[in-house]
Model the fold of this input.
Amino acid sequence: MQVTDPTDPALNDFVGLTDVVLRRKSEPAGGLYIAEGAKVIARAIQAGHRPRSVLLQQKWLGEITELMDDAVPIYLAEPELLEAVTGYAVHRGALAAMQRPELREPAELLAGARLVVVIEDVVDHTNVGAIFRAAAGLGADAVLISPRCADPLYRRSVKVSMGTVFQVPWTRLPEWPEAATLLHSAGFHLAALALADDAADLAAFAANPPERIALVLGAEGDGLSRDAIVAADSVVTIPMLNGVDSLNVASASAVALWALRGVASASTATS
Done:
């Protein structure tokens, strides 16, 4: 169906999708998130997520139609109308309003896992998406996020992750110390990636790693909270040179996961 009026009620799912507006739309139970681009939309559907409607340019119609059930409404629009509706330039030409799935219980994700990533209070959507991409590419079994961490299904997070937020199982943890109790009861060693005088060198920690590791990553700037550090079994650091004290949290996650690839490989071999 071709649409020419940006105020058409059929487009309500897509109106004004700045991060602030999207946050308001996505938080309620039974809410939505937006998948952008044919590749990301395909990964969302492959993960079992249900599209509610699609808004796209004509040139993407054939590729998107192949992914959709006949019951999903597809709206065609010119690029100028897409920008007028959403509030930003839609570079990848296709948007799908997806029904938000229910979060799984942490214990379900931890069962059988060997290496998981815990993200505490990272509020930048780009960093969250990049951490998911590292987790997928370097073999983490799951990602668990704190109550105040940015939503992995925000449009920017999904885009930066290249759709791996649909590939890596994830859910939210409760606050500390309840989160630590859940992880410890599942047999995980909590390794907090942080700066501390008594922190273990990452290479030394990875040389003789615990059997099951929860790698805990902290917020931009402030790093991990005191509660997270207290809950940790080990504090681990990435040695730096030239007066640089730390890496961006997403970069640090990739370095740490690469160092712990032996744990990740063991998980893959036993799954």
In short: The first strand starts at residue 32 and ends at 36. The chain has two domains: 9-99, 106-270.
